[in-house]
Amino acid sequence: xxxxxxxxxxxxxxxxxxxxxxxxxxxxxxxxxxxxxxxxxxxxxxxxxxxxxxxxxxxxxxxxxxxxxxxxxxxxxxxxxxxxxxxxxxxxxxxxxxxxxxxxxxxxxxxxxxxxxxxxxxxxxxxxxxxxxxxxxxxx
Length: 140
What we know:
Layout: E1 4-7, H1 12-23, E2 29-32, H2 40-49, H3 77-86, E3 95-98, E4 101-104, E5 123-124, E6 130-132
Parallel strand pairs: 1-2
Antiparallel strand pairs: 1-3, 3-4, 5-6
């Protein structure tokens, strides 16, 4: 099973998404994108396949978004991609690539939409929210 997650271990949503993938019995390829940023072509491909605009793929919170003036609506997609490549912390996370599609898994349970394999057991997010019951079924 070829599954890749663009991961930031400091992010709870990213950790929860990785744990959901592993709860299905899959060990994905983990790319710590802050250490190994994607190329421009890969980043553009992730954004496109996830059905997002470049602006929707930018992380604002906890980043230099405002100080770089990225809220300027006249900036082109190329300008925004340049900023994301220069400052990978601007890339929202986690992007997950599976044979069934690509998603920005925010919230973490979005990964289940492109990961139809059964969960192996119960799962709760780090905050205690139960997502998967004891039989491996999605709750809500």
